[in-house]
Amino acid sequence: MQFILQILSTALNFCTVTSAYVGSQKTTSNSHKSLGSPFGVGFDLTASYGSAAVSFSNGTIVTVAQIPGDQDYNDMLRRLSLAASRHLSPPYNNVGEAWEDMPRQYLRKARKAVGLPASQDVGHLAKMLSGLRTVVEERVGPIITAGVTTMHLAALYDEDLHDAFEYVGLKYITFPIGAVGHNILYETSAAYAGYGYGLCSDYKGDPEVCKNEQWNMTDQVVMAVVYTDTALSVSLSNLASAYALWEPPYRYLVDFDLGYQASSLSTAEYWATVELKLGEILVEYPNYERPSMVMLMGDRTEESKFRATLKKVLSDQMQESPEVLSECGRGIAAKGAAEMAKREIFLAKQNPSSCFKATKKEKELPMRKWTISASRSRC
Ligand SMILES: *[C@@H]1O[C@H](CO)[C@@H](O)[C@H](O)[C@H]1NC(C)=O
Ligand SMILES: *[C@@H]1O[C@H](CO)[C@@H](O)[C@H](O)[C@H]1NC(C)=O
Predict the structure, then answer these.
(1) Are 231 and 208 contained in the same domain?
(2) Are residues 322 and 340 in the same domain?
(3) Please, what is the average pLDDT of the chain?
(4) Parent domain of 321
(5) CATH number of the domain that 301 lies in?
(6) Long-range contacts of 234-238 (CB under 8 A, 24+ apart)
(7) What is the pTM of this model?
(8) Where does the signal sequence lie (predicted)?
(9) Total count of domains within the chain
(10) Do residues 278 and 311 lie in contact, with contact meaning Cβ atoms separated by under 8 Å?
């Protein structure tokens, strides 16, 4: 029983993680540059590779690494994309679930106790994180924390990301998104921020003003597309601020058979299938508001055949073509995560007890972009 309560209380205490940066500043003797200078590091664990970006306090955001996933990493993401791979995971809805998940939790604890990653998957995630971290540290010096974003996979849980961070010795940044404990920063949110949307214009100013600005942002329907060697994903998401994403499973499709290099179909069949997939949600739900923006992510979005296919889908399904954001697609989610990480670190340092929540806006106001730094247009 004590163990269950412990799990439940861990789940409910995610909020306190933020203040841990400040705590560790006092207790660790070797000085950590990520505390001394306010930059943020963001990792994107996406299909077929991981990438890392750094957001500096002067507004410059750079992608510093892209590391291809190995077979284990790729197989894992494919498997975690399947609904059949789902299992119980904290936070639990009730004590019964906690009870039922206990054997799995004990196994994780036992593995950790002997110095292993909590699960094999955690090991694969940790390997990627560790590679990215090494490249980042070559660039900016030792880091102690980072923000991570990843695909919206059915069976990838916050717990796994936490444990992977713990295994590589990094502090996990919990962003104030969604319900308590359901805190994965999905790529749609991170890319939105990376493209310059959904964050307040002056995060160094009054935190209340920043919070209000984000709460007051207008909802926008965004089609987010990830296209890499191993997968294609398409969503019809709703975003107000970057912290307020609505992306239910039926509005998010991911297919690990439709990556640029993943298909066994003939070329013609392949592109016909990609076309169907890109348009599937729009076709299936003709009454849903059409996207006002398309965000491209992934290192294959520049392929001309892909662009032509997307263009065809948009012109078939929509009267007016929405804005297509595609520049810097390959590192954009990592950049957004880095910017959001920088802001969390800044807030945590200002106010160790801060744990603000993103909630729905109450009033419609025009969408605002935060300052566009020079680097974002250059990639
Ligand atoms: C911002 O700071 C970074 C790191 O110190 C530096 O590399 C970059 O050139 C700076 N950007 C601007 C616009 O000054
Ligand atoms: C929205 O902005 C107005 C000021 O423009 C502010 O008074 C109000 O509190 C904000 N709404 C929320 C929910 O923060």
Answers:
(1) no
(2) no
(3) 84
(4) 217-329
(5) 3.30.420.40
(6) 234/277, 234/278, 234/280, 234/281, 235/152, 235/188, 235/281, 236/281, 236/282, 236/285, 236/288, 236/291, 237/188
(7) 0.84
(8) 1-19
(9) 2
(10) no
Q: Are residues 156 and 30 in the same domain?
A: yes
Asked if residue 257 and residue 150 are part of one domain, the reply reads no
For range 287-299, the mean pLDDT: 95
Ligand nearest to the CA of 375: 1
Atom of ligand 1 nearest to the CA of 58: 1
Tell me whether residue 375 is in a domain.
no
Q: Tell me the best of 60, 342, 373 to mutate to test the pocket of ligand 1, counting ligand atoms within 8 Å of each CB and taking the most.
A: 60
Predicted confidence (pLDDT) at residue 91 exceeds the cutoff of 90: no
Tokens of 275: 């076309």
Is the sign of the CA dihedral 140, 25, 43, 205 positive or negative? Answer: negative
Q: Give the nearest ligand 2 atom to 359 CA.
A: 13
What was the pLDDT predicted at 316? 95
Strands 40-46 and 145-150: parallel
- The two structure tokens encoding residue 280: 């599937």
DSSP H helix total and E strand total for the chain: 14, 12
Tokens of 240: 């107000």
By C-alpha distance, which of 247, 241, 244, 245 is closest to 369? 241
80 in Cβ contact with 66 (< 8 Å): no
Q: Report if residue 372 sits inside a domain.
A: no
CA 182, CA 105: separation in Å to the nearest integer? 18
